[in-house]
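Appendix C: a fully annotated inverse folding record. The material below is reproduced so that readers can follow the format used throughout the book. The structure is listed first as tokens, followed by the designed sequence.
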């Protein structure tokens, strides 16, 4: 079972990630990548948010999916509270929905792959969870079809060159989603380093090994 000490530790880590991401999302990433102006596409929050998948995966590895879901719900509650305080109701709904569904999918994928090569479960869980997380957040936040949740953002839905450099055009939120997903994939690969380093320290509990 997940002891109170570990539950508090993992929940605190998840809350720190959520709080940091909600704070850092206010700051655009300054710089360019080729001809792409990163400040038009990304915030620093895009780099901290994917760490939530690492926290979820470490909890899942050590204590199993039930414990991981409890930690995710703590992060969900923290995220919703912050979104309600700092963002519009539509963004709050999108953020909470994306976080919860993406993390729960990550848990399910991880659990199915936990007995395969050590990197497959965390990487595939993060990738598949991030796909759904990105689609849900940006669609609910900006797609006109979800305008019943809240007012549409005219700037987000207006057409612009994809990623600011391509000849083809699309609503700006599409470019934001593409850039955000790219960062999630990059961080997902990088997070394999701390995950691998902690594998010998955070070993699965006996009941997890028996039921996995």
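Designed amino acids, in order:
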């Amino acid at each position: 079972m997940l002891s109170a000490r570990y539950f508090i530790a993992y929940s605190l880590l998840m809350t720190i990630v959520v709080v940091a991401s909600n704070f850092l999302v206010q700051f655009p990433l300054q710089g360019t990548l080729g001809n792409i102006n990163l400040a038009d596409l990304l915030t620093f929050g895009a780099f901290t948010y994917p760490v939530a998948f690492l926290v979820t995966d470490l909890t899942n590895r050590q204590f199993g999916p039930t414990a991981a879901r409890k930690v995710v719900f703590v992060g969900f509650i923290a995220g919703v509270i912050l979104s309600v305080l700092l963002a519009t109701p539509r963004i709050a709904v999108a953020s909470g929905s994306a976080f919860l569904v993406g993390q729960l999918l990550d848990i399910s994928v991880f659990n199915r792959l936990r007995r395969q090569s050590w990197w497959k479960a965390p990487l595939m869980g993060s990738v598949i969870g991030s796909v759904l997380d990105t689609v849900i957040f940006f669609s609910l936040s900006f797609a006109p079809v979800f305008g019943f949740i809240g007012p549409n953002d005219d700037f987000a839905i207006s057409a612009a060159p994809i990623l600011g450099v391509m000849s083809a055009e699309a609503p700006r939120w599409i470019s934001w989603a593409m850039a955000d997903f790219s960062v999630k994939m990059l961080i997902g690969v990088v997070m394999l380093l701390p995950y691998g380093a902690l594998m010998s320290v955070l070993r699965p509990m006996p009941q997890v090994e028996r039921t996995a």
